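About this split. The held-out portion is used to measure sequence recovery: a designer receives only the structure tokens and must propose an amino acid at every position. Recovery is the fraction of positions where the proposal matches the reference. Here is one held-out target exactly as it appears in the evaluation file.
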């Protein structure tokens, strides 16, 4: 198993990866994004159990930075393009841009919210 070194966040940006969303989302009152991840993934169980659940989805609330990034993930833009657009929009709030974006995209990928 390969150990990760600290500061390896920008390797995703160098590979020209294109993130594609895998989950639905909704917009909260404050304008922030809330990701909706289904509680049940098995298609058979989802068909029969999800309609009976009061809350069929986990809700993950994103902050201002995460919301800005999520709005740019469309399956067409590369991570490098997203980094440039987010840096223009948020400025100093997201510095160091490439490291933070790389880490955030890796977290989304590990949580099965996006794919590359």
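Reference sequence for scoring:
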């Amino acid at each position: 198993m390969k150990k990760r070194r600290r500061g390896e966040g920008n390797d995703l940006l160098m590979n020209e990866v294109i993130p594609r969303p895998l989950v639905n989302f909704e917009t909260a009152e404050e304008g922030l994004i809330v990701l909706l991840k289904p509680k049940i993934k098995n298609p058979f169980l989802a068909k029969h159990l999800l309609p009976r659940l009061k809350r069929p989805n986990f809700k993950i609330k994103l902050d201002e930075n995460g919301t800005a990034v999520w709005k740019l993930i469309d399956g067409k833009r590369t991570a490098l393009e997203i980094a440039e657009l987010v840096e223009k929009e948020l400025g100093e709030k997201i510095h160091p841009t490439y490291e933070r974006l790389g880490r955030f995209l890796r977290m989304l990928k590990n949580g099965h919210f996006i794919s590359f």
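Annotator remark: The longest strand covers residues 33-38.
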